[in-house]
Design goal:
The complex is a heterodimer.
Chain A: E1 5-7, E2 10-13, E3 19-24, E4 31-37, E5 43-50, E6 53-57, E7 65-68, E8 75-79, E9 88-95, E10 107-108, E11 112-116
Parallel strand pairs in A: 2-11
Antiparallel strand pairs in A: 1-3, 3-8, 4-5, 4-9, 5-6, 7-8, 9-10, 9-11
Chain B: E1 9-13, E2 18-23, E3 33-38, E4 45-50, E5 53-56, E6 61-64, E7 70-75, E8 84-90, E9 93-96, E10 99-101, E11 108-113
Parallel strand pairs in B: 1-11
Antiparallel strand pairs in B: 2-7, 3-4, 3-8, 5-6, 6-7, 8-11, 9-10
The chains are: A mainly beta, B mainly beta.
Chain lengths: 117, 114
């Protein structure tokens, strides 16, 4: 079964450093997302991406965040200057774009655990 | 988005059937009900989705009464590997260009005991 993959599985960085989290969505999917989950808290939407541009972003997704699809397979989340409160699990998700019934089914990757020291 | 209420936690013994109920009193006419499962340190995984009556797949069943103000996820004969957090999602927020963002609550933490 096709799956979303993410690298690295764990990233440790110093406050103020830039990090890039990488995702390979399912190959025929058209919509891509980033969510995050702070330890013990809810999964929160960050951003959605379609047709090479951001379609929606949450209040969390401020100017320190950016997303990119540099080639036909990768989807990246960059945090320019990390803060302690950015420590969380970051999940990439993708969706095919064919609504068979009701709401799309999003497929999530295993996540990257980001630790900011 | 419809507000959902589900138990914070449940315990069950291996081999038992587990039913997790979600209340969503203000569900909209065009809202679907979707359940996701999340194992520790993993991403959420789609389990099942329904609109009304009963839906069954290889993993679970979803029961939705006629008024659609609640739904019940049923897991037959659970095993230790079913220990996870289960999320009930009702509707979604349109993100534009045909996409929807998912809004997760706190979910129900199911612990399966040997």
């Amino acid at each position: 079964e096709p799956e979303v993959t993410q690298t690295p599985s764990h990233q440790v960085t110093q406050m103020g450093q830039e990090v890039i989290l990488r995702c390979v969505p399912i190959s025929n999917h058209l919509y891509f997302y980033w969510y995050r989950q702070i330890l013990g808290q809810k999964v929160e939407f960050l951003v959605s991406f379609y047709n090479n541009e951001i379609s929606e972003k949450s209040e969390i997704f401020d100017d320190q965040f950016s997303v990119e699809r540099p080639d036909g397979s990768n989807f990246t989340l960059k945090i320019r200057s990390t803060k302690l409160e950015d420590s969380a699990m970051y999940f990439c998700a993708s969706y095919q774009g064919t609504i068979l019934a009701g709401v799309d089914t999003q497929y999530f990757g295993p996540g990257t655990r980001l630790t900011v020291l | 988005l419809a507000k959902t209420t589900q138990p914070i936690s449940m315990d069950s013994y291996e081999g038992q059937e587990v039913n997790i109920t979600c209340s969503h009193n203000n569900i909209a006419t065009n809202d679907y009900i979707t359940w996701y499962q999340q194992f520790p340190s993993q991403g959420p995984r789609f389990i099942i989705q329904g609109y009304k009556t009963k839906v069954t797949n290889e993993v679970a069943s979803l029961f939705i009464p006629a008024d659609r103000k609640s739904s019940t996820l049923s897991l037959p004969r659970v095993s230790l590997s079913d220990t996870a957090v289960y999320y009930c999602l009702v509707g979604a927020t349109y993100s534009g260009a045909g996409s929807y963002q998912l809004t997760f609550g706190k979910g129900t933490k199911l612990s399966v005991i040997p």
